[in-house]
Design goal:
0% strand; transmembrane helix; 150 residues; SPW repeat-containing protein; elongated; membrane
Length: 150
């Protein structure tokens, strides 16, 4: 495929939806952590992201489960917002939507990475960089084609 394909509005729109699905996918994973009977998968995920294997993370404290519920809700909401922007506004204002999505991911990356480092889990900043590039992909650059109105 020609490189222009990856810089097209239609590909950008598809990639935004892919990024939205990635973000939404982490929401239920965190939500599970708010219930003690289902917290183990979330704890394992946090062990991996924090690089603290063999039970380094605990979801025994109610405040930890509360924060997990908040994170799950925010991630689902943010992912749905990205999906809605791609679905309903991208064709009308593709560059504005692209910039909004890129800036939102950059804000997440900086704040989440700083918080991870400050809390003693710098490895999560590396995982964040991976997800930043995965979710933004070609969105770093403006599209070169005209959007298809439909």
């Amino acid at each position: 495929m020609d490189i222009a394909h990856y810089r097209s509005h239609s590909f950008h729109k598809k990639w935004m939806k892919f990024g939205a699905i990635v973000v939404i996918g982490f929401g239920p994973a965190f939500l599970l952590g708010s219930f003690l009977p289902t917290a183990e998968p979330t704890r394992l995920m946090m062990d991996i992201l924090g690089w603290t294997f063999w039970g380094g993370q605990s979801f025994d404290a109610p405040t930890t489960r509360f924060l997990s519920a908040l994170a799950g809700g925010f991630l689902i909401g943010w992912g749905v917002l990205i999906w809605q922007l791609a679905t309903h506004l991208h064709d009308l204002a593709p560059e504005v939507v692209r910039k909004a999505v890129v800036v939102s991911f950059l804000c997440w990356f900086v704040t989440d990475s700083l918080g991870s480092i400050a809390s003693g889990h710098p490895s999560n900043a590396g995982f964040n960089a991976f997800f930043l590039f995965l979710c933004l992909g070609p969105l770093w650059w403006s599209a070169t084609s005209k959007p298809v109105q439909g």
